[in-house]
Amino acid sequence: MESLDNLLTKAAERLKKAKRVVVLTGAGVSAESGIPTFRDAQVGLWEKYDPAELASPEGFQANPKLVWGWYEYRREIVRNNIPNPAHYALVELEKKLPHTVIVTQNVDEYHRIAGNQNILELHGRIMENRCFKEGRLLKDNELNHSSIPPRCTCGAYVRPGVVWFGESLPSNTLSQAFNEARSCDVCLVVGTAGVVQPAASIPYYAEQAKAFLIEINNLPSALTSIMQVFLQGKAGEVLPKLVSLI
Ligand code: BV8
Q1: Helix boundaries (H) for the chain
Q2: What mean pLDDT is reported for the chain?
Q3: Does ligand 1 lie within 6 Å of residue 160's CB atom?
Q4: Distance of alpha carbon 77 from alpha carbon 106, whole angstroms
Q5: Which long-range contacts (CB under 8 A, 24 or more apart) does 109-112 make?
Q6: Which of 36, 38, 101, 199 lies at a C-alpha separation of 20 to 30 Å from 17?
């Protein structure tokens, strides 16, 4: 088994020559910021709920107060934490390799807060609010807080601005992500189980385009088998090492 240092060197050598880099990130990139990943057992009050149940229109319609409470709990965690060295390493990467695009499944906006410029957010933003009926983005002063969840000016419930299971991703963002994957020469996959579709298809498009595939994860994922290099470890530790070698 090759040492991590040799694998880091191999990955860095390939990145140095890269013309177009796609970085697919998942919840594992924010884990060291203190944001629980979907794989982590839900804690406390949320222990008995399946995230995929809560993160769905059916779950919200069945129990709007419960689902709203889950998002408020998660928003508090996002508000009270900050990006970690993994996020800042990706800012460095974009500076070193100008055509780098961050395609993220995460909804915490930590890539933008850390300073990346070229970001495609596949699953929306947890801090944003939309009308459950009209779908439109709501400003804070359009929320009627006399109920939980709050209500839109049209009377319908307010929902978080994320893409739920069973909902389509923003089509232009998704097609941009697929086009970037089809035209990249290196695809770096960081901190994702590689289960949620269609995000998990992105590395396969890169593979079809003969891109060099690199993964950073503390455990093997559903995508590890198609990788040229698998760097096992925490994103906050491995990514800064990798980027420092470029
Ligand atoms: C859709 C926002 C059309 C909400 C999220 C095709 C095949 C099979 C199923 C489907 C398919 N097409 C559609 C589906 C159904 C479904 C799906 O994929 N289901 C899965 C469960 C099988 N997909 C959808 O519904 C999508 N919509 O396709 O529309 C359509 C419509 C109707 C019917 C059919 C099709 C919408 C999916 C979007 C859901 N919304 N987020 C919210 O956040 O509340 S997804 C949500 O899950 C988060 O975004 C999160 O990112 C993601 C989970 O994935 P990961 O990021 O991988 O996170 P996870 O916790 O799973 O894993 C963490 C990883 O990090 C692990 O590998 C771990 O080892 C690693 N790690 C942990 N710590 C570290 C680390 N790595 C490095 N360092 C560390 N420190």
Answers
A1: 4-16, 51-54, 57-62, 64-79, 85-96, 110-114, 171-182, 202-208, 235-244
A2: 96
A3: no
A4: 14
A5: 109/78, 110/29, 110/30, 110/33, 110/78, 110/82, 110/83, 111/25, 111/83, 111/87
A6: 199
Is the CB of residue 34 below 6 angstroms from any atom belonging to ligand 1?
no
Residue 132 is encoded by which pair of tokens?
């459950």
CA distance 121 to 53: 22
Q: What is the pTM of this model?
A: 0.97
Structural tokens at position 51: 């995230």
What DSSP designation does 144 have? B
CA nearest neighbour of 67 among 141, 6, 132: 132
Best residue among 197, 215, 242 to mutate for probing ligand 1, ranked by most atoms within 8 Å of CB: 197
**What are the extents of the domains in the chain?**
1-35+81-123+168-246
Q: For residue 194, give both structure tokens.
A: 């590689």
Q: What value does the mean pLDDT take over residues 2-21?
A: 97
**Tokens encoding 240:** 């800064």
**Residue 3 corresponds to which tokens in the numbers above?**
């040492």
At 130, give phi and psi (nearest 5°): -130, 155
Residue 208: count other Cβ atoms within 10 Å of its Cβ: 10
Give tens-digit pLDDT for 140-195: 999 999 999 999 999 999 999 999 999 999 999 999 999 999 999 999 999 999 99
Is the four-CA dihedral 47, 53, 55, 60 of positive or negative sign? negative
Pair of tokens at residue 25: 């990130």
Q: Quickly tell me which residue has 């709990």 as its tokens.
A: 73
For the domain 1-35+81-123+168-246, what is the CATH code?
3.40.50.1220
